[in-house]
Amino acid sequence: MILIIGVLAGLVAGLARSWFGKHPYRVPQVHLAWLVFVAFIPQFVAFVIPATRDQFPDAWVPAVLVGSQLLLLVWVFLNLKVSGFWFLGLGLFLNLLVIGVNGGMMPIRPELVDRLIPQAPPGFWSVGERLGVGKDIVLAVEQTRLWFLSDWFMLPGWLHYPLAFSIGDVIVSLGAFWLLWASGKNYPTLVEVHHEQENQQQADCYDDSVVRR
Amino acid sequence: MKKLSEKMMITAGKVDGQTARLVLFVLSLAMFVIAAGAPEAGGTIGF
Questions:
Q1: What angle is formed at CA A36 by the lines to CA A81 and CA A24, rounded to 5 degrees?
Q2: What are the tens digits of pLDDT across the range A151-162?
Q3: What is the pLDDT of residue A196?
Q4: Angle CA B23–B26–B29, to nearest 5
Q5: Which residues of A touch B45 (CB under 8 A)?
Q6: What angle do CA B38, B44, B47 make, to 5 degrees?
Q7: What predicted TM-score, i.e. pTM, was given to this entire model?
Q8: CB contact under 8 A, B34 and A3
Q9: DSSP string of A106-164?
């Protein structure tokens, strides 16, 4: 849910930007948005719905996670011209990279799991196994490839919300924020662009006539 | 059922295209960040 905060904050900031600037909020034209829905559904079944996630075999998790994120990467690639998609793509790529080279799940180090769920009974988790019903696998640092891209960071204690996250997660959130913030910018309309081009052409003609004299 | 359908059509008619596009865009983005990210909150669902 923490990732949704980036989306909501970006939306509020972008709407406020357009409201204070007294211009319309322009939703970017994205292609094939249904691909996101198709990519999201398997993860929703595997990690969110309690009735299905509890039954979901751990062995299927890597295929679902990597397959779903590959589809998202295709969607980003198809929309790279839209401002902010480079950020979204970079964050997704970094997460997919570390997940891919570590067997298809996001690595998390045991020390962090101890801090994350100190109340967990003995045997609730073990190194080399999937953590709960999430996307993470507990791996020691020396077992982890590209450890610096894994769930390495934790929110500060004073927030009272134990959460481990990766650099990729931060970049994805920033990308979503930027995309929604940029949509609140005052872009010139086609009519304004046309007028500007006409004015420029007239100015060029005037310059030419002055030079000829 | 017919009344429900009529009510849905009336409601849909009230929502202008720009708002509908914004809602769909934000929904797509929300689904994207949830699926692209992999934070771990208290060892539960991973979202």
A1: 55
A2: 999 998 898 888
A3: 67
A4: 150
A5: 47-48, 53, 132-134
A6: 30
A7: 0.83
A8: yes
A9: EEE-HHHHHHH-TTPPTTS--TTSB-TTSSEEE--GGG-TTGGGSB-EE--GGG---EE
User: How near does any CA of chain B get to the CA of A45, in Å?
Assistant: 11
Chain A CB within 8 Å of residue B40 CB: yes
CB contact under 8 A, A99 and B46: no
Regions of chain A where pLDDT drops below 50: none
Residues A51-97: pLDDT tens digits? 999 999 999 999 999 999 999 999 999 999 998 899 999 999 999 99
Instruction: Report residue B46's pLDDT band, with 50, 70 and 90 as the boundaries.
Output: very low
Mean pLDDT of chain A: 90
Return d(Cα A150, Cα A139) in angstroms, integer: 10
Q: In terms of CA atoms, which chain B residue is nearest residue A104? A: B38
ipTM at complex level: 0.85
- With beta carbons under 8 A apart, name residues in chain A contacting B24: 33
Q: Report how far residue A128's alpha carbon sits from residue A143's, in angstroms, rounded to the nearest whole number.
A: 9
State the amino acid at position A96 in one-letter form: L
- Mean pLDDT (whole number) for B31-37: 96
| Domain locations in chain A as residue ranges | 2-188
Please tell me if residue B45 touches chain A, with a CB cutoff of 8 Å: yes
Q: Which amino acid, B29?
A: L
Closest CA to A63 of A42, A92, A83, A36: A42
